[in-house]
Hints:
Number of helices: 18
Number of strands: 3
CATH architecture of the domain at 35-153: Alpha Horseshoe
Distance between the termini: 108 Å
CATH class of the domain at 35-153: Mainly Alpha
Strand order of the largest sheet: 2-1-3
Order of helices and strands: HHHHHHHHHHHHHHHHHHEEE
CATH topology of the domain at 35-153: Serine Threonine Protein Phosphatase 5, Tetratricopeptide repeat
Radius of gyration: 34 Å
Strand content: under 5%
Helix content: over 70%
Amino acid sequence: MSIFEMLPLLLLLVVALGIGWALGKWQLSRELKRQDHLANHYFKGLNYLLNEEPDKAIEIFLQLAERKSSRTYRVGRQASHDVIETHLALGSLFRRRGEMDKAIRFHKHIIAQPHLNEAQRTLALRELGRDYLQAGLLDRAERLFSELIEREQGDVQPTRQLMDIYQQEKDWAKAIEQAQHLQVQEPEESGLLLAQYNCELAEQALARGDTEAAQKALRQAKRYKPGHARALMLAGDMARLQGDQADAIAEYIKACESDPEAFVLVGELMLDAHEQLDRVDELIAWLDGFWNASHMSAALIMLATLRAKREPQAGVATLLDGLAQRVTIVGLEALVHMLHEHGMSLSEVDPELVGRLMSELRKAQSRYRCKQCGFSSSEHHWLCPSCRQWDTTRLVQGPWGD
Length: 402
C-alpha cells in the first residue's frame, strides 16, 4: 500500500487521538469541578457545625453521602470511603455531645449504603450500638452487639458492652455468661467481674430466703476470685442469719484481712457477734493488732470505746495515742464525744460544741470516692453509678476521710 493510500487512515488516527485527548481533558475538567463542588459543600457543612447549626450541617453531609453512593467509578469509590470516615466521625461527635438522635441518624445512613465493605459495616454497627447504649435503647444495643460478636470472633469490645447492658438491667446470669468469654484473653479482670456478678446473685438469693442458691453463688465467687472481700462478707452475713455467730466472725475477719476497708462495713456486725458469744476480750485483742497493721480510724475508735467502757482513762489514752499517729476528723469527733461522755474536759473548749462542729464538718464531706472517675458519695457502692466500674469506690483518705 502506497503512502497516498495510507494517508486517510493516518488522518483518521490523528483525529481519533485528538478526540480522545479532548474527551479526556473534558472528563478531567468535569471531575475537578465536581470535586471542587464537593469540597465547597464540605466546608459549608463544617461551617454550619462551627456556627452551632447542626441540622443544616446534617442535611448537607447526608446529601453528599447520597451523591457518593450513586457513583461507581474509581475516583468515586475513594471519595465514598472518605465520606464514610467523615460521617462516622461526625456521628461520634454528636454522641459525645449527647445529641443521640443525630448520631443515630448518621450511623444508620452509613449502614444503609450498598457499597460498604465488611470492615466499614462492622465499624458502623459498633458506632450505632454505642449510640443506642448511650440513648438507653438497651434492647436495640443488645441485638447489635450480639451480631458483632458473631461477626468478629475474638473481639472483646462487644462482649464488654453487652456486660454493661446486663449490669444496667441487673441480669447477672447473662452478665456471667459474657464475662466467661473474657477468661482466656483477660483472666484477672474476668475473675473480678465473675466474683462480683456471683455476689449479686447471692444477695438476691438471700433477699428471697434461698440460702442454697446463695451458697452456690458464693462458692463460685470465691472460686473466681479467692479472698474476695465482698464474698467473705456475704458469707459472714449468711452465717449470722443462720445463727452461727462464730463462723460469721471468722468470715468477717478474713474479709478485713483481705481488704482492711471492709471493716467500716462489718465492724458493728463483728461487735454484735462477739457480744452475743461473750467474746469481747477477743475482739479487743484483734482490734489492737488490726489497728496497728491497718491504721483504720474506725478500728481505733471501736478499740478505744470498748476500753473506755471498762476504764475511761485507758480509752482516752488509746484515742490520743492513735490520733498522734494519724489525725482524722472522725477520730477527733470520737475523742470529744468520749471526753464528754465520761465527764472529762478538753481545756477551756466546750466538748459538746466541738463535738457538734466536728460532726457537721464530717457530714459536709463525701466519705467515698471512685478512684476511676472521681464520683463522690456518702454511701458505699460496689458498682460505681457514674463510670460503672467494680470495686473502685474507696474511702476518702486524709483528714476528711476514714
